[in-house]
Every structure is written in C-alpha cells, then in structure tokens.
Hints:
elongated, 2 domains, six-stranded mixed beta sheet, 1 helix, 22 strands, 5% helix, disordered C terminus, Immunoglobulin-like, single chain
Amino acid sequence: MKNTICEIYLNPNESCDGVYHCGQTLSGYVVLTFYEKQKLKDIIIQILGIGKCEWTEQRRLFHAEEIYLKHEIKISDLIDGNHIIRTGVYTYPFETKLLETLPTSCEGKYGFIRYLASVNIIRPNQPVQTQTIAFTVLKPHNLNASPLFQSPTKKQQCVKFFRFLSMTLDNVSVTATIKHNGYAPGQMIPLQIDVDNKSNKNILEFKVELNKVFVYFDTVRKQSKKHKSPLTSILLSGGCPANTCAVHISEILVPPVPSTDSVSSKILHITYELKIYGNFGGNTMKPLIKLPITIGTVPLYSTYRCVHFEDSIESNHIVPFKYEALLDDYLNLDNSNNDGKHQYAPFYPVFTVRPSKRRQNSEQSLESSSEQSNSE
C-alpha cells in the first residue's frame, strides 16, 4: 500500500555487508512507516533459507524443495487489542543464529539455494504486503583441513587411430597434471599437458575448460539432473604435430563461485572439473581428459601469501581480498518478487593471485630495468 513503507536493514558484520558465514549471528532491523491509521491482522518478520529445483524430462515435471532455516517473529506489540495501528514510524530489531550446517547460497539453471529476510504485513480481506531482501550465506570449506587437497592430480588418456595403409593402430598419449587438487576463487590453477603424438594426425590446438557441475535431485521420484556450465576457457595454440611430442603449460583463473559441496543439501550438489579437448582437424574439439577440482573458501597456505596467514591456520574465515558475484548464472523460479535480474546474486570470497615463479621473475626483471633507467 502507498500509505505504508517497509524497509529491512541488515547490520554490518566482519565480512562484506550482506555476506554471512555459518555459525555467525544474523541481525538487523525493520523500519515500518504508516502514514494513516489502519487495521491489521499481523506483522511477521521471517528469516528463510530455502532450496528449490525444477526441470522437465519427457513431459514429466520433476521438482524438490528443502528448508534449511526458518525463523519467524510476530510483532504483536505494535498492534492494540482492536488490531489498529496508528500513524508513525516503528523500528523493530531481529536476530537469529545461522547453523553450522547450512549450505552455501547458489544459483543455477534448474534451481537455487537462497536466504531471505522478509516482512509480511497482513490486513483483513487484502493481499499480504511483502518486502524481501536476499543475503549470502557461506559454508566454510578450508582446503588445509585435508591433505587430499594439497596432493597433485594427474591423469593420462590414450586416443587410438587406425592407419589404413599399414593396417596398424597408432595412438596419442595425453597426460594432464595440476599441482594441487584444491583452489579458491581468484587463484590460478597451474596446468601442464604432456603430449606424445605417435599418430599421423596433427593436433592443431588444445582447449581447457573449467566447468561448474550442478546435480539436482527430486528426492521423491528418485530422479536427478546434471548440468554443466563452463566458467573459464582458454585455447592453447601450437597443438602437437604428427609423430612429435609437446608440452603445454598454462594457468586458468577460478572465478567467484560457491565451494564444492555434496553433503549440505539433499537436492543440489556442487562439483567442479577441468576438461581438456584436442582439435584433430576441422571445427570439432574431441574431449580427452577430465580432472576433478575442489573449490574452497580458504586457500591452501602454500599457494596464498598473506600477512600473518600462518597465525590463522585454525581459522575458517580468512579475510579475502574482496567479495564478488558471478552475474551471468541465475534462474528465478519465483519471479513474483523479482525486482531485477541480480536480486538474488550471492557474493563469494575472492583471494589475490599469488604470482608464479615465471611471473615473479619477469616482474623482478622489469623492476631492475626500471631502476637502471632511473639511475641513468
């Protein structure tokens, strides 16, 4: 109603405004402005964490919903015995504890996990007036908690070709290696590709993709839906000519994304993979190797430089360089209260990139050359 204004404010916390970690206390306040006396049934503040997914296969609709957090406060003290509220400005605080087990906020093509703070003003014989804001919840994923994430990952794949003239089989051996299994947003994944091409076919180029893999579950009908979306891709020119060997070294950036999690939610699992393709001629890229990657919220200490970082080894809340949203990957299954495309955009921690030795050497050489030019 035009004669009523409802505003919701979240109190600032130790991280980015609107971003909270599991285990923290979410607090804020509601400001209600009534420009005329009116009759109300109730005013309810609701803090909600909800997961939804929905897709169609062979004309069958699959869907699921899961509630992670629900906290309601009725503001009965603003209304007198006759359910009449007088004109004026009313402020009402609220707070709730965020459980340690909450899944991270995320948005996908067929579903989402969202956290909302809303106010419902209920009047007799009238539609409910609702005001809603979204906030981000992050479940900590410290990559230093397991030696598995510090270990290198290596995978080899052979592609066989039939040589008609000699009636023999030739093969291309491709080996992909990454230094660690776990990385955080903002970091670079160092990748080495070793190629032994014993065939008569030229590999024109390689393509490397970092894919986000969402798996949605209809828990009632026991059906699942997997969706992959490429986050970052790079082309490695040069390839590997026939009957030669080649080595390609590259880095691929991890964008702001939710951490790997296949436990916290029953209806939405999040994993990541590096996928390597080879171009053997024409416009078709042949898939060669798939490497699993773990994305966390706290980077490996050996890959991240920070003042007093070693003093915070037990902490799950290392302060990142900044928080960012991945603004091109959203679905709104509920459009009724959607005020804009990115209303529900979650924000994720982004850490500064630690330069590789090659980049450090080039930076040092640039600094030394500039110092020499200044002295001259």
